Amino acid sequence: MDTIPWDQIFFILEAWQKGLSDAGFSVPSVSALSLEVQSEQTKAWVVLVSTIISLRTKDEVTIASSRRLLVKAPGPQDLLQLPKEMVAQLIYPAGFYRTKAEHLVQIAAILVDRYHGRVPDNMEELLALPGVGRKTANLVLSEGFEQDAICVDTHVHRICNRTGWVHTKTPEETEYALRNTLPRLYWRRINWLLVLFGQQVCRPQSPYCSRCPLADHCIRRDVLKSR
Fold this sequence. Notes:
single chain; mainly alpha; Endonuclease Iii, domain 2; 2 domains; globular
């Protein structure tokens, strides 16, 4: 696949997603939480908190846990007023909830102390926060500040390699490879589309290749069993 027809791929993915929506299929989204707030800085805090909670946690749990915490802590100053144990209880049963609570308290303290309670809007400063990796930082930049950023999680990494669009070993390598090939127009949209696609069709084990709308754009790398 020398030349990747990104326009066609995104047209197919968006049509597929619209078909799900028209059929009444509702998909929870961490980034959808940002639509519930108006302030840019509040939005960045919501995305940062919910993305940290989301790591190794189902979307449904993430959204419920994030809402419980954000009602009590709509900003970092508010979170610092809560005992760490209460933060942990509010985000339970998110995976590794005690570690995440520790990170959230540390992050809130840093934001209040160094950034006047504001979430930084650049990669370097976001990566310096406890528990924040490139996936989280890119999602904050994309959803919180509407910057062009590519958020690569396990779904995006797997699908882009399985299809043959990239040939990389790690999500970070996939991010850099996509930066070189993916038109900037699609940077912010690829994560949402491929995460949903990875959950419903291009699953880690035994993907639904027989009903895949992207079959003509996929080399099925390392697919040993499919449905």
